[in-house]
């Protein structure tokens, strides 16, 4: 992610949303604090429903993220930018 100090190399989206997918990204050198879980809905592109910020991977008290959502506005903006670039209808 590029906003607010997030890793600029982040440019990958993995399907599945399970710990195996998280492990693949960690094995490739991603940092845990740069991994976020979202659900894109390409048919909703251009609407607030396009990206659902809801995943257990997002619960991170030590990063001040205490919910399944992504609470940091800079992180949300970087995620939206990434999903906009990589997910098409």
CA-atom Rg in angstroms? 12 Å
Query: How many strand segments?
Result: 2
**Runs with pLDDT <50, length 5+?**
1-9
Total domain modules:
1
Strand fraction band? Answer: under 5%
Terminal Cα separation, in Å? 22 Å
Bulk shape: globular
Helicity level, as a percent range? 25-40%
Give the integer mean of the pLDDT values: 82
Structure description:
- The chain is mainly alpha-helical and 89 residues long.
- The chain has one domain.
- The chain is built from two helices and two strands; from the N terminus they run αββα.
- A two-stranded antiparallel sheet has the order 1-2.
- The longest helix has 14 residues.
- The N terminus is likely disordered.
Would you summarize the structure shown here?
This protein has 2 helices and 2 strands, in the order αββα.
What layout of secondary structure does this protein have?
Elements: H1 19-27, E1 39-40, E2 51-52, H2 73-86
Antiparallel strand pairs: 1-2
């Amino acid at each position: 992610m590029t906003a607010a100090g997030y890793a600029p190399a982040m440019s990958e989206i993995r399907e599945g949303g399970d710990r195996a997918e998280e492990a693949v990204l960690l094995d490739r050198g991603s940092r845990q604090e740069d991994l976020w879980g979202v659900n894109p809905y390409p048919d909703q592109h251009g609407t607030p429903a396009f990206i659902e910020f809801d995943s257990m991977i997002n619960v991170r008290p030590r990063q001040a993220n205490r919910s399944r959502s992504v609470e940091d506005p800079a992180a949300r903006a970087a995620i939206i930018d990434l999903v906009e670039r990589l997910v098409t209808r």
